[in-house]
Amino acid sequence: MAPQEIQHHDQFDTPAPASLSELVSALKEELGSDAGLDSDHIDVNRVLSVMEAYKSNATDWHKYALFDRSRAYTRNLVDDGNGKVG
């Protein structure tokens, strides 16, 4: 699969998600229930567009900001996506 040329938010008619939950819903809609970012039918530019349109708000994601000082970084689950958690 050839890499796609990156396009940005203003090149799509993408409504800006107003909250983290709207962002998660919009990403689920773009990805579908069985796909990952490497699936052929996923338009990575549209996924990027949705993410760029979201204006981060700390109150949205504060409950997910869990720190583990014993690790250099942590990944905190916001949504189980298409069930491929792992």
From TrEMBL:
UniProt keyword Cell membrane present: no
Enzyme class: oxidoreductase
Pfam families the record matches: CDO_I
Cofactor binding annotation: Binds 1 Fe cation per subunit.
Family of the protein in this entry: Belongs to the cysteine dioxygenase family.
UniProt GO BP: L-cysteine catabolic process
Swiss-Prot/TrEMBL keywords: Dioxygenase, Iron, Metal-binding, Oxidoreductase
Cofactor names: Fe cation
Tagged with keyword Metal-binding: yes
UniProt catalytic activity: L-cysteine + O2 = 3-sulfino-L-alanine + H(+)
Origin species: Jimgerdemannia flammicorona
Matches recorded under InterPro entries: CDO_1 (IPR010300), RmlC-like_jellyroll (IPR014710), RmlC_Cupin_sf (IPR011051)
Gene Ontology MF term list: cysteine dioxygenase activity; ferrous iron binding
EC numbers: 1.13.11.20
Protein's name in the database: Cysteine dioxygenase
